[in-house]
Structure formats: structure tokens, C-alpha cells
Amino acid sequence: MIFHPQELAGAFVIELQRFEDNRGFFARTWDPEAFASHGLNPRLAQCSVAYNRIAGTVRGMHWQDAPHEEAKLVRVTAGAIFDVIIDLRPSSPTYTKWLGVELAAGDGRMLYVPEGFAHGYITLADGTEVTYGISAAYAPEAARGVRWDDPAFGVRWPREVVCISDRDRTYPDFTP
């Protein structure tokens, strides 16, 4: 795995290091020692998958409050997304800043989302499947969110939203 730090402290785009032969390729998608050596949370508590039927589907922006914060490793296994993270750590120099990264099946890239970040995405293709490695078990009482189009952040989404849950569409405006 090749780790590329991003402009938001603690966020990384991680490229798969492919070992290819006549059968195709093999690559590690998880290595706790490599994660720890880059200062990333090496704990893997659960893996999840989200299937999205149509392009223009938004999921997010979600996080879990203390003491249930979670880091995520996001990878697309079918289709493509514009993946967005927002730094919600008040003590961070990049507090309330956002980052958007396109991830697509077969591109060999993953996004590491640190604890304290909101995370969400919009699908860029029909039939998009997203897998997550998550550092903490889901705790419904700690689940939080901000609206995908909250003006406090100014996220520039690359396409029109055509499908979103009522919950994600109606989060209140962010207040620090």
C-alpha cells in the first residue's frame, strides 16, 4: 500500500500496491502494521457495504460522537463515487474544511477517514457498491450528521442529487 497524505490532517488516499501476473493481480487492502506506522488507527471492528442503485445518490454526511468515534477506510468495488470528508475536530487547523476524492472500482485507491470527520459521498454511476472498514462498532446513540449541502462547508458536489434519504436531506444547519 502506498500512503498519500491529504491537505486535511490525518486523511490519506491509499493506493493498492498491485502484484501482477498472468492471472491478474493481488494487493493488500488492510495491514494494521502499515496503518500504525503512518499514525493511522489500525483497529478494524467491522466491515460494511452500501449498494446504490442509481447515479446521483447521496449518503452522508455522517460521524459518531465520543466515545464511539470511528475511522473509516472507504473503497469502491463497483461503479464510482465522489467521496467527501469534513474535518469536525474543533482543535484542528483544518476545522470545517472539506476534501473530495473520486474513487472508482478498479482504480486501486481507498480513502482513510480519521476519527472526528463527517463522511459522505455521491454516486457517479448506477450500481455503485462501496465497502467500509470501520474502527469502532456502530453505536446508534452516537450517530450524528450534517446536511450534505450545508453552507457552513461549501462542498462543491460534481453532479445533481437525485436520491437522498429524508434523514440526510433534513439535518439542521451546522453550529460549532
Automatic annotation (TrEMBL):
Gene3D superfamilies: Jelly Rolls. Pfam families: dTDP_sugar_isom. It catalyses: dTDP-4-dehydro-6-deoxy-alpha-D-glucose = dTDP-4-dehydro-beta-L-rhamnose. Pathway: Carbohydrate biosynthesis; dTDP-L-rhamnose biosynthesis. The record marks Y138 as: Participates in a stacking interaction with the thymidine ring of dTDP-4-oxo-6-deoxyglucose. It comes from the Bacteria. One of its GO terms (cellular component) is cytosol. The active site is at H62, Y132. Belongs to the dTDP-4-dehydrorhamnose 3,5-epimerase family. PANTHER family: DTDP-6-DEOXY-D-GLUCOSE-3,5 EPIMERASE, THYMIDINE DIPHOSPHO-4-KETO-RHAMNOSE 3,5-EPIMERASE. NCBIfam families: rmlC (TIGR01221). Catalyzes the epimerization of the C3' and C5'positions of dTDP-6-deoxy-D-xylo-4-hexulose, forming dTDP-6-deoxy-L-lyxo-4-hexulose. This is dTDP-4-dehydrorhamnose 3,5-epimerase.
